[in-house]
Design a protein that fits this description.
The protein has about 280 residues and is α/β, with parallel strands linked by helices. The protein has three domains: about 100 residues, D-Maltodextrin-Binding Protein, domain 2 (3-Layer(aba) Sandwich); about 90 residues, D-Maltodextrin-Binding Protein, domain 2 (3-Layer(aba) Sandwich); about 70 residues, 2-Layer Sandwich (Alpha-Beta Plaits). Helix content is about 30%, strand content about 30%. It has a six-stranded mixed β-sheet with strand order 2-3-1-4-11-5. The radius of gyration is 25 Å and the shape is flat. It starts with a strand and ends in a 6-residue tail after the last strand. About 30% of the residues are buried. The chain binds phosphoribosyl ATP and zinc ion. The site of zinc ion (ZN) has 3 residues, from loops.
Length: about 280
């Protein structure tokens, strides 16, 4: 039995649950229980506050966990990062009042900076050779300069609208963060096997999300040119159509390449192009 720690509620909860469900796992929510047993996989889910996840995984109370890199770096406990998950993207940034004149990071010399990320900020200041005072605040960090508690803040930013609505401007990015799958440093071999099969499923889900199945019709004369345009995983499938002189071409393409090649496909004579989502993809 493997035990995974995920956030009980908050910004990472929904995407963490969705990822596990897309891996085909069946389990109950975090409504009342702290632990949920997965019905069809050798896994137990522990619902926790995100700040507790690195310690639980470090100590082996949970074998694996899903947590933001920001929380992981701040906790600074030994864990292994198994997989970058592509959600919960944000950055930990320094921000100052918008009217302040900023030239470079030396601005922070002798200043007071409010944050919930003391360790990460302390390391960054050390690296830059800046002496500043860190004011520990656990929530609503963005109001600190307005109430005279600090000169600037170090906090998570995604859209930037919280900074703007508090009269602040982002001046330095200290780290970029997203959700990662971490594991305990002393994972037993039988648990490692379960983790590998979970990672296999996560890879299939992620591949499917980044790829699309494409079907198009083309005159047989245009077939070779169209195949050259298509960057498929392998050779595309070519099927004859009922109408003579025409064929149907099927392949898988990366979603972000699609818009680049669509015009070229049309110019080469492709018609009736269909782009279909893929449920799972194993290569
Ligand atoms: O209760 P628990 O301790 O589990 O949750 P929490 O309240 O500490 O964390 P939560 O749920 O807010 O965030 C969980 C994780 O989501 C974080 O650790 C990050 O890894 C990730 N994440 C991604 C974010 C953001 N984006 C984000 N924008 N976490 C917080 N924010 C906050 C930020 O602190 C600021 O207040 O959103 C505000 C800024 O957002 P914008 O869009 O206005 O820039
Ligand atoms: Zn938290």
């Amino acid at each position: 039995m493997l035990r995974i720690a995920i956030q009980k509620s908050g910004r990472l909860n929904e995407d963490s649950v969705l990822l596990l469900k897309e891996c085909g796992l069946k389990f109950g929510g975090a409504d009342r229980k702290l632990i949920a047993k997965v019905e069809n996989f050798d896994l137990e889910i522990l619902y926790l506050r995100d700040d507790d996840i690195p310690r639980y995984v470090h100590e082996g109370v949970a074998d694996i966990g899903i947590v933001g890199e920001n929380v992981l770096f701040e906790a600074n406990l030994a864990t292994n990062t198994e997989k970058i998950l592509g959600f919960g993207k944000c950055r930990l940034s320094l921000a100052i009042p918008k009217e302040a004149i900023y030239t470079d990071f030396k601005w922070f010399s002798g200043k007071r900076i409010a944050t919930s990320y003391r360790n990460v900020l302390h390391n960054w200041l050390n690296e830059k050779g800046i002496e500043a005072r860190i004011e520990d605040i656990s929530g609503s960090v963005e109001i600190a300069p307005g109430i005279g508690l600090a000169d600037g803040i170090c906090d998570l930013v995604s859209s930037g609208s919280t900074l703007i609505s508090n009269g602040l401007k982002e001046v330095e990015v200290i780290l970029k963060s997203e959700a990662v799958l971490i594991s305990s440093p002393n994972l037993l071999p039988e648990k490692r096997d379960i983790l590998e099969s979970l990672i296999f499923r996560i890879n299939a889900v992620q591949k499917a999300q980044n790829n699309k199945y494409i079907l198009l019709n083309a005159p047989i004369d245009a077939k070779d040119e169209i195949i050259k345009i298509l960057p498929g995983i392998k050779s595309p499938t070519v099927l004859p159509l009922a109408e003579s002189g025409w064929c149907s071409i099927h392949t898988v393409i990366e979603e972000d390449k699609f818009w680049e090649i669509i015009e070229k496909l049309k110019k080469a004579g492709a018609q009736g192009i269909l782009v279909v989502p893929i449920e799972k993809m194993i290569v």
